[in-house]
């Protein structure tokens, strides 16, 4: 009997000690020494290196933001230019387009132009009108134009390429030129142009700059019978020959270069 009582007392004591250990562990503060129970707290998680310091691309973006001109994106542009052009109507090929004895086939003239288009990041597309006013005639062009721009802060070099319609007419400067004008003698054809320039942004929307372009024009002219008959009495032989020339079809391939100042708006 005593042996059974002693065995029960020993079992009760062991159970009581087990409950006491669990209670103590629950009440122990966070960070208390757990190694005495055979447990070891996990090592602190090291900070992610990618979060501690910015990566190289992020650093480059931050630097670009600091150096950015602050203009933001541009979607629509328009500009106007004025300058001078040297143009030869028959520089590359002459097939009776004009009679150089009575109408000058080359010369220096004033040029006025305007352009309008859209921009997508570094690329532009649009249209450009240009009018050249020369001593003996006028020529105007209407071209589609594509461009590539290279932003360097508020300075933007650019390159353009275009092509479209060209029209030669409005002859002037002499009595014979007046006859050509009254007979509605005109030539038209294709204009191809390439140029380079630079814009300086004075504000986010306004720029000033300069442009140098070269072009090739392919012109064809229909004959005019009104210049052949009747030929007025006493007409100089040079004019008689010219009237015969303009009574036939003619063509020519010309070339020119233009230097102009440019004012632009950007939105």
Number of domains: 1
Arithmetic mean pLDDT: 83
Order of helices and strands: HHHEEEEEHEEHE
Helicity level: 10-25%
Low-confidence stretches: 16-28
Question: What is the beta-strand fraction?
Answer: over 45%
Q: How does the overall form come out from the CA principal axes? A: elongated
Q: Termini separation (Å)?
A: 105 Å
Q: Structural class per helix/strand content?
A: alpha+beta
CATH architecture: Beta Barrel
Number of strands: 8
Strand order of the largest sheet: 1-2-3-4-5-6-7-8
Main sheet attributes: strand count, strand direction, barrel closure: 8 strands, antiparallel, barrel
CATH class: Mainly Beta
Please give the radius of gyration in angstroms: 43 Å
For this structure, the CATH topology is Porin
Tally of alpha and pi helices: 5
What is this structure, in a nutshell?
The protein has about 270 residues and is α+β, with helices and mostly antiparallel strands. Helices cover about 20% and strands about 45% of the residues.
């Amino acid at each position: 009997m005593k042996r059974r009582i002693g065995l029960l007392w020993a079992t009760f004591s062991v159970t009581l000690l087990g409950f006491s250990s669990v209670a103590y562990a629950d009440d122990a503060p966070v960070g208390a020494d757990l190694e005495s129970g055979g447990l070891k707290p996990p090592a602190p998680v090291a900070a992610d290196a990618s979060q501690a310091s910015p990566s190289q691309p992020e650093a480059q973006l931050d630097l670009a933001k600091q150096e950015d001109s602050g203009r933001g994106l541009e979607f629509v542009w328009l500009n106007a230019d004025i300058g001078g052009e040297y143009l030869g109507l028959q520089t590359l090929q002459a097939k009776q387009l004009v009679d150089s004895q009575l109408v000058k086939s080359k010369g220096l003239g004033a040029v006025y132009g305007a352009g309008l288009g859209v921009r997508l990041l570094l690329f532009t597309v649009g249209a450009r009108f240009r009018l050249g006013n020369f001593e003996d005639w006028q020529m105007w062009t209407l071209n589609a134009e594509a461009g590539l721009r290279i932003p360097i802060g508020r300075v933007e070099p650019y390159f353009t390429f275009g092509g479209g319609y060209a029209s030669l007419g409005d002859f002037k400067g002499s009595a014979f030129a007046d006859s050509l004008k009254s007979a509605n003698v005109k030539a038209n054809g294709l204009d191809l142009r390439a140029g380079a320039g630079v814009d300086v942004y004075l504000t986010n929307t306004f720029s000033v700059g300069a442009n140098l372009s070269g072009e090739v024009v392919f012109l064809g002219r229909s004959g005019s019978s009104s210049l052949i008959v009747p030929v007025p009495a006493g007409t100089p032989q040079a004019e008689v020959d010219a009237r015969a020339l303009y009574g036939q079809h003619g063509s020519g391939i010309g070339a020119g270069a233009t230097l102009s100042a440019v004012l632009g708006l950007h939105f």
